[in-house]
Amino acid sequence: MTRQLKVVVTGGPGGGKTTALDLFRRELSHQIAIVPEAATLLFSSGVSRSNEPQVLKEIQKTIFALQKNLEAIQQHAHPDRLLVCDRGSLDGLAYWPEQESEFFQAVDSSLEQEFGQYDAVIFFESAATTGQDISSNNPTRNESTAQAAELDKRLQAVWSKHPNYHFVPNSESFLRKILFGIMTIENVINQHRRAGGETA
């Protein structure tokens, strides 16, 4: 068994990544393991969102640690599968109220160290960037269209620096966008396999 592929699927609120991952999981249920979104798990457990700087910092530090632990759980539970993460450890940078350097000091890491944890990043652009509806079935999501567009911009600024970054642009057709996103995930996995990184 060789090195396990680990891919981040991220993007601004209302980007369609969760829909794409649900469909992808159905297609390749025995070949991939999905790492659930840490923020959704935290906020679904009763923790409230806050804009108070110190509370926001503690929340993001908790999400960072939870993200890492969820990845480790799935990695050890499914060593023969491809690991696909619903968001990654650096998503918290888009919410961090202070300087980027303080974030890395708080979580005892660096941009390079976190990038090194992921083989590829697939970014789903939020529909909010073109003023489209971002209604969601996720009750923990409460961003306005303007807030979602701003978060999308911040997240792009972080993840676009990854050496293997793939961008899934917004589209007037949600179906076309999701299909393009799924095809992008498949291409990343196939590239990994051709490079000799097959895990099974």
Give a description of the structure:
It contains seven helices and five strands. Helix 1 (17-27) packs across helix 7. It has helices at residues 17-27, 38-44, 53-77, 100-107, 111-115, 145-159, 174-194, and strands at 6-11, 32-35, 82-86, 120-124, 165-168. It has a five-stranded parallel β-sheet, sandwiched between helices. Helix content is 46%, strand content 12%. It is of the alpha/beta class. The radius of gyration is 16 Å and the shape is globular.
Gist of the model:
By secondary structure, the chain is an alpha/beta fold. The chain contains seven helices and five strands.
Topology:
Layout: E1 6-11, H1 17-27, E2 32-35, H2 38-44, H3 53-77, E3 82-86, H4 100-107, H5 111-115, E4 120-124, H6 145-159, E5 165-168, H7 174-194
Parallel strand pairs: 1-3, 1-4, 2-3, 4-5
